[in-house]
Write a structure and sequence with these properties.
The complex is a heterodimer of chains A (136) and B (171). Chain A is an alpha+beta fold and 136 residues long. In chain A, 21% of the residues lie in helices and 44% in strands. In chain B, the strands form 2 sheets. Chain B has a 6-stranded antiparallel β-sheet with strand order 1-2-6-7-8-5. Classes of the chains: A alpha+beta (136), B alpha+beta (171).
């Protein structure tokens, strides 16, 4: 399954209206719209951290699947640093890269942006990695 | 000696306060998360829904849903633990709380351990405030499905506590 299909086939990615904007060779870019249903703090209209996590996790998974030969992946762990609040109303864009891949594990870094000068969040994660065997 | 408050009145007061806290978080409603309360102990419940699936082949709940569920559980627990003393002492009523909701803690960082894939059934989570200071708090959350002893995820998060007018300048 390629990563574009992977995104389309994820019910929760669809529930958050995620869109695959760029993909290839261990990199992915996925975005999602601001939506009143995703708000965490009604006093500010800021998107819930959990929704940002979901975007970063999906983007990390897509980046892993874009590594040539990758077949399946699952998140082992994910740490998110929330540097600042997301701007209410702004589309969120996540960018993820696999900075190292072993036979079994892909190490991923990701950032989330909303059009401001600095990222609003960054993440690091380890994902299980399985690739097609080169020999049958 | 004053007459003790009738047990039903106590429960209603606590439940109304909790409902106003949880009801104010749109994303928790979006995911279908609700809370059960025994005394001051909260259990977050994530009823299964097909839209929560991340891997349709297994099928398994999306990791982002699990991370979200744990973060919601942590924030509500922390906020609940903060309002509980005032609520019990009668310094605030649930009605006053609903009119003027406490500011929620802000997540500084959140680390999730995905221990097992989330099965397509209900999930449960309990959070424990390990350290709660004037400015920062550290919270641990555990989540399970069928067996309390077999966690499917756990998380630790650090939170910035909302500053009230009284201690906003008191570093």
């Amino acid at each position: 399954m390629n990563a574009q299909n992977f995104i389309n086939a994820l019910p929760f990615a669809q529930a958050l209206a995620m869109r695959l904007d760029d993909l290839g060779d261990g990199h992915a870019e996925i975005s999602m719209p601001w939506d009143a249903r995703f708000v965490g703090d009604p006093a500010t209209g800021v998107i819930h951290g959990g929704a940002v996590s979901a975007l970063m996790d999906t983007c990390g998974g897509a980046a892993v699947l874009s590594v040539p030969g990758a077949t399946t992946t699952a998140t082992i762990d994910l740490r998110i640093d929330y540097m600042r609040a997301a701007t209410p109303g702004a589309r969120l864009v996540a960018k993820a890269e696999c900075y190292h891949v072993t036979r079994n594990v892909a190490f991923v870094r990701a950032t989330a942006h909303d059009g401001g000068d600095t990222p609003l969040a960054s993440a690091t994660g380890a994902f299980t990695f399985a690739a097609k065997d080169a020999t049958p | 000696m004053t007459t003790p408050e009738p047990v039903q009145a106590v429960k209603q007061r606590r439940d109304r306060a909790l409902a106003s806290l949880v009801g104010a978080v749109p994303y928790a409603q979006f995911l279908g998360i609700y809370f059960e309360r025994h005394g001051d102990e909260l259990t977050a419940i994530l009823p299964h829904d097909d839209k929560l699936i991340g891997n349709p082949l297994l099928p398994a709940i999306h990791g982002g849903v699990i991370a979200s569920f744990l973060e919601v559980a942590a924030i509500i627990e922390l906020s609940w633990a903060t309002v509980w003393p005032d609520l019990e002492a009668g310094r605030i009523t649930p009605e006053e709380m609903a009119q003027n909701l406490p500011r929620l803690p802000k997540t500084i960082d959140f680390t999730v351990d995905f221990l097992r894939s989330g099965l397509p059934r209900d999930g449960y989570a309990r959070a424990r405030v390990n350290r709660s200071g004037r400015r920062y708090a550290s919270v641990h959350v555990e989540a399970w499905q069928d067996n309390r002893a077999r966690l499917f995820a756990q998380a630790t998060g650090h939170f910035l506590m909302p500053q009230t007018g009284r201690d906003a300048t008191d570093h």
